[in-house]
Amino acid sequence: MSRSKFGKFIPIAASSGVFFAFSDKPSDGSQRQVANALVVMPKPEPPPPSLIFDTDDSVYNEFGTGWFESSNTGYWGNTKARLNAVGNGSDYAVWQAVVPNSGLWKIDAWWVPASNRAIDTPFIVSSGFVRDTLFVNQVLGANQWNELGKWNFEGGDSVEVIVTDKASGNASTYVCTDAIQLTLIDSVTTGIAEITNAPKFSDIIIGYPNPFNPTTTFKYELPKESKVVLSVFDTNGRLVETLVNEKQQPGCYLVHWDASQYSSGVYIYRIQVSDSANGGADGFSAVRKCILIK
Prior knowledge:
Largest sheet: 5 strands, antiparallel
CATH class of the largest domain: Mainly Beta
CATH architecture of the largest domain: Sandwich
Helix content: under 10%
Number of helices: 0
Number of strands: 22
Radius of gyration: 27 Å
Strand content: over 45%
């Protein structure tokens, strides 16, 4: 029980922060306690919500044939970690979750380190405009949540955390998946400027299906007349194909890409949009990855 200039604080509704304050020495000189103030204190803030997903959750899926269970201890929860030998990016795992609140979210990953882990395992965070690739050293970081970064998301956004086998090493080097944690650390979205002249890319630059074989579709919406260039590159930055290069009117567009003539692997697609009415001065560009599996 705490004291103040009034004496003791006696909670009458601690969850709401309402207290009576009592004096130890009433004015008549007796030692009985007499209430002399009603104090309303701020309700303690609840801890920020966290979402934790393991490899046995329905939001986790693996693609490719190389995934297997690790025998090492130190994994999160009741499900052992998963491993895959490093490769060309054709094997990957995805957690796909929906964040319930708008704000700044921190994403952490849990893995089981070992001497044969990749030192540059790719973790890709993808949601709407966001598509960030981070390379983590999985030799380190035992028995702890390892921060990948912080991102602003809107409530209801679908967030993907992707781990691919495209890391350096040999056939005896492995990438590891185990668990991810999303924590809301600020419920007020900050740090993102609204791009009023940009197209509304609610679904664009997430080709569907992805992975695909051999065709996928890119969708985008133009709020006004714009010059659009949509191109596909390989992972070395070489141009594979230009799908769109023209001025387009406002509206929703679906662009199909038939990759039957190309080999399996990771491809980069980029859209560049410029305001044709303003000489191209205002514009928007976004880059995403897609995976062709044959």
